[in-house]
Amino acid sequence: MNSVFAQERHLSVAQSSIWTAQAIDPASPAFNIAEYVDIRGPLRVDLFAFALRQLVNESDALRLRISVHPEGAQQSVVAFPDWEMLFVDLSSDADPVAAANVWMHEDLELPLHLDQSPLFLYALLRLGPERFFWYVRYHHLCMDGFGGALIAKRVAQIYSALAQNGSVPPSSFHSSIDLLDEEEKYRCTELSRDRAYWLAVLSDRPDAVTLSGKSPAKARTFIRHSGCLPAGLTASLASMGKIFSASLV
Question: Which one of 74, 144, 181, 221 has the fewest beta carbons within 10 angstroms of its own beta carbon?
């Protein structure tokens, strides 16, 4: 779906919370979310760039433009006719993987100007003749982890179809307008009932506590720890996922 709505709409409730937190600390990169896909094997860079261009045209979430008014922030979907995938060739570096990690971490730590910058970045980092990192970075205002997984799946679908028969398969993405309309409908019909229910359920809960006894501070840095699950455990989880129609993503 290549939709554009120039008319500004309000932010969703979740977006409003994120925007407010970012406005309080504009220099913080805490709402940047990123990952990379390690691509090993032959890759047609021109075809991959075309697939990303197609994706950007299809996804309203990627083309959000935030504007600030006295009454608050508004959003619209705009066209990005000049957008191009960023290509970085690190194959001549002594340690391409280390260089790529430095490059990605430096980008992740850059704060975004929400009313000026695109809310996403796609870069293809070449590490060697048949190894690439596809780096994706979003502001949480436009994307979450589940949405990012859907995006990656769609890119693979487009690229594979283009490589096989030169055609682009139909997209199943919906417009951002639909989501805003659904939220408005919920707030007008079921919100009061749900609010009353949860206030009653949580009425006797104690105040939140912290290990330090102090109010939590706002962080600008990221803590990451990686580990590998044993193959047997991964297979067991995948098998269980099939039973309950779930996945590891």
Answer: 221
Query: Structural domain boundaries of the chain?
Result: 9-184
pTM, two decimal places: 0.83
Tell me the CATH number of domain 9-184, given options 1.10.10.10, 3.40.50.1370, 2.40.30.200, 3.30.559.10: 3.30.559.10
What is the C-alpha separation between 154 and 78, in angstroms, rounded? Answer: 21
Give the model confidence (pLDDT) of 59-70 as tens digits. Answer: 999 999 999 988
